[in-house]
Amino acid sequence: MTERNLTVTQDKDMTREDIRNPERFLTPAVDIFETDEGLTLVADVPGVDKDHLRLDIDQGVLTIEGLASQVDQGEQVLQEFGASGYFRQFRLPDSLDTDRTEAELKDGVLRLHLPKSEAAKPKKIAIKTVH
Amino acid sequence: MLSWNLIREMEHLRREMDEIFRGAGFGPMLDAPFLPGVGMRRYPKVNIREDGDGFYLEALLPGVDPKKLDMSVVGSTLTLSGERGEEENEGRTWHRRERGAGKFLRTIELPVDIDANKVQAEYRNGVLRVTLPKAEQVRPKRIAIKAS
Lengths: 131, 148
Known about the structure:
- The structure holds 2 protein chains of 2 kinds.
- Chain A contains 2 helices and 9 strands.
- Chain A has helices at residues 2-10, 15-19; strands at residues 25-26, 30-34, 38-44, 53-58, 61-67, 75-79, 85-91, 102-106, 109-115.
- Chain B has a domain at 32-86 and 99-138: Immunoglobulin-like, CATH 2.60.40.
- Chain B has helices at 2-22, 27-31; strands spanning 46-50, 54-60, 70-74, 77-84, 93-97, 102-109, 120-124, 127-133.
- The chains are: A mainly beta, B alpha+beta.
- Chain A binds chain B through residues 26-36, 39, 42-49, 68, 70-81, 105-109, and chain B through 28, 31-34, 42, 45-51, 55-56, 58, 60-66, 87, 91-99, 123, 125-127, 129.
- Strand 2 (30-34) of chain A pairs antiparallel with strand 5 of chain B, so a sheet runs across the interface.
């Protein structure tokens, strides 16, 4: 019983992702990698243009939401992707400087740079020799 | 002729097997728009629509350099091939890796012949849109009926 309660509180922010109709919303595939400078998130959102992509960071949760347009000429003969929207959320660590986030959209690929805050960057400490 | 049909039958069988496994618990994994590994599933994903004049194809190809994209039409068969470049790895710690990279090739057979000279393709926002007009001889023709 206690275990179940715990899960609910943990997933509180993420429930929106589950509630969305999977027929209409796709979960975009992402790559996330970390360098000394920060985190970079790369997501595949084919068919979405700049005006139909919404990115926001609220209380440490990053939301990616996009709408893609599709051709509707003629009759459907083969359908392998039906969804016209993308939705995904991530919980971000506190060590990021979210004010300096940069996003770039090219050929249906979203690149999001999330720089680390100064305090979280690795620092080299020079050692002085004392004679 | 016989061997040709055999190969085609094998291909159909393989596709059907893929289709069965798609529903068997690997759903989310196989549904990612791009999957690392070879030949696990069809790539790219396409939607095809049809009207009296032709076919309209949409293929999801995010992050593929249009210069590395190759398309050809022979008779009623469309072949799409290309490559998606891999991300560099130097000094990076990966947290998630769901987007694949590599070469792909897909052949799509349409029910009727295509007028290869009039095919138009446009790549925008990671989606390739192809207009494939039907060949003149297979287009529906209106025949006027005279009342006597």
